[in-house]
Here is the input.
Amino acid sequence: MDLIARLRAFCPWNEQEERDREAMLRLLESGQAAWGREDPAHWTASAWVVSPERDRALLAYHNIYNSWAWLGGHADGERDLLATALREVREESGLEEVRPVSRELYSLEILTVDGHEKQGRYVSSHLHLNVTFLLEADPAAPVRCRPGENSRVGWFGLEEAVAASTEPWVQKRIYSKLNGKLAAFPPAR
Here is the structure.
């Protein structure tokens, strides 16, 4: 299923997701949503990685934002955003076994990214047209950081994961929402 069909089929959880879905569809249908990071609005994929018991979430301490954050990154031309999310989790955490709880879109967000330095080069302010997938992994599996991008990776209780972020908007509008949506995905028995 292509992204337009997936976005149309997505059932928004709140007004933020409804508005962001409408904007994403407009940009995608008009050809203004880029698959590479050269354009000011481009596709990214994130993952809310939870334990099979749904009581913990995996975060990485991202050096650019100086905050604990979910895992994910740029599509960089990849049109399978679930594959992007899985790749990014493996790269950023070192996890070898991570699997989708569902292959459907879990959450949508249009995220502003302030201009910043990355690897000695300036990156202009831009928008991430972000889709999030719900993934699970074993908290006992070894994790490692990705030097240059994050400096720590660790599991947190769900409420601790929200509190670990230093970004109030992200805490309230994203991580709390992601935790709230978990009720629809009970642990496998």
